[in-house]
Amino acid sequence: MQRQTIAALTACLGGLAYTTSKVLLAMRAELGIHGFPAPASSYAAWQPEQIALAQLGNAAVGLVTAICALLLLWDGAARVRAFRWPLIVVSWLGIAMMAAGVVGFSLRAFGVVPALGPPAVGWSTYSALAVGAVWVVSWAIATVGFTRGRRLTTAG
Fold this sequence. Notes:
The chain is mainly α. The protein has one domain. Helices cover about 75% and strands about 5% of the residues. The protein contains five helices and two strands; from the N terminus they run αββαααα. The protein has a two-stranded antiparallel ribbon. The protein is globular. The model is unreliable at about 150-155 (pLDDT under 50). Keywords: Membrane, Transmembrane, Transmembrane helix. This is Integral membrane protein.
């Protein structure tokens, strides 16, 4: 398998892992991410249905990221300019947002910025950070490969 294919499939799995975690949190009516729960007091005024709906919205975003990662493997997406460039832009925006999240949660996990919340401990904290980092790097590799691959083919 090519590096871009492995990267895109890994990024897709990252999106699906995020989606799954958000659905599980929605079922429990909790905010946060696995390994980094939000204090219950921070959303005490919310109704459980509102919390679940917010988490299901986040799950939908995760599903969209998984689909975007898969689209980076589709040759048809690369050939249609009106589809190709929006996919590249959406991918880089998603990568930037996920990278910011990984950095922010890393700062919290290691107690570098106490204002972000108490450092979280346990295997779920570090596994969430690892999944996020692999997701970001994989999606970036897939996006670069998608962009360069079409440029080289059409220029040649």
